[in-house]
Prior knowledge:
Layout: E1 4-9, E2 12-15, H1 18-26, E3 32-34, E4 37-41, H2 42-50, E5 54-58, E6 61-63, H3 65-75, H4 79-91, E7 95-98, E8 106-109, E9 119-125, H5 132-144, E10 148-154, E11 160-165
Parallel strand pairs: 1-5, 9-10
Antiparallel strand pairs: 1-2, 2-4, 3-4, 5-6, 7-8, 8-9, 10-11
Helix pairs in contact: 2-3, 2-4
Amino acid sequence: MSEFKFYISGERVFSTMESAINKLYNKRHYGEVIGGKLFLSFIEAAYLLEKEWIKVFEGEKELGLEELFEKGRKKDEQFDLKFLVYKDLRDRGYTVKTALKYGSHFRVYRKGMEEHADWLIWVVSESQKMYPNDLIARVRVAHGVRKKMVLAVVDEDNDVVYYQVERVKF
């Protein structure tokens, strides 16, 4: 499927190919379509490049996976952690979208995007310090938008463990 060509544009990549929009956005829910262009985040692009579904260019130069990762790391120091979680969730068959407006990294849908997202995902490394107020704020936001808050913890072996965090009323 690597006939889809994408080009770097700021912190994303884009394609104007109608076939890319149909197969990646309409059927598989990758990216977002704006003005007839399909835009993918660097994380989505890295996932699809790793699967050999797309090619990514900067001008005339085709980028490899490591080059795309380097660009992602320049924009986000947690790029590698987020990629591992994104990849794990996508490989399990979930649709994964950004959740910045909810104060989380990802929102996750069980099946496509016909329904509302079930979970908000916050990605952390096993060694990262967490403060109770950070968890409380995220749980409150998730509860307020009727989603479950999930902490995705990446350990030193790059394994991901998911913890659902919720409020308990007595």
